[in-house]
Amino acid sequence: MEKKRNIFLKNKKFTVYLILALGIILVAVFAPLIATQDPGAAVLTDALKAPGDGYIFGTDKLGRDLFSRVIYGTRASLPATFALVGSIFLVGSVLGIVAGYFGGWVDAVIMRIADMMVAFPGMVLAIAVAGILGPSIINAVIAVGLVSWTKYARMARSLVLKIKHEDYVEAARVTGSKTGRILCRYMLPSVLPTLIITASTDIGGMMLELAGLSFLGFGARPPIPEWGLMLSEGRSYMQNAPWVMIFPGLAILIVVTVFNLLGDSLRDVLDSREDS
Question: b/e for 88-106, b at 16 or more Cβ within 10 A?
Fold first, then answer.
């Protein structure tokens, strides 16, 4: 317990960003208690009202409370982003470890598939996949995931290649250790720290990509209060009702910044622990 406490005390930046990230997650969990109104309730007579008069962030074109929609937006954006990062982390790590350890035709097949994925601009390919699957937040996660797992696979493969011929791995093979035990006992621990750091720093970027797909009409669909979709809906009112875009944009900016800083501070924590 004392060691854990020392980790947080020695890494104050990490502690601060972790608290902020947990605060954002708690906003998503307790959104019904924080939101002042039903995010889907439309009051056309109050359409495009400026902040104030009972509406903290103003209203959108349908008279829906923007503050409540921004708060509920955490429930749409965070789970989708975490599901995306978790899936590409899992798939990429497994495929990369398998490719690096077994080599041969297994490595060739997995890496050629990865080469095919990176041969096209990632966002363009994600838009194409999302367009084929149809607009929805789930399809957006699938589309971005299909083009994003390659980084984790290549990273895991390169890390496994560095240690697969080390003496302790060869000794494990000679003593009759099963392949599964070698992968879990030696390969996985060697790649996890780097991949965890990469995943934590990717949270912000993946959230931006999902918001971008929703902005372009390939992600979340109305009336879901998703930040990228809210930005898209507010484009037509940028001049006479700028708050319709300002507050969802600020929400994206704040959340992406917090998780990017959390990822950077986590890297510093893990690097300092490895050095010690």
Answer: bbebbbbbbbbbbbeeeee
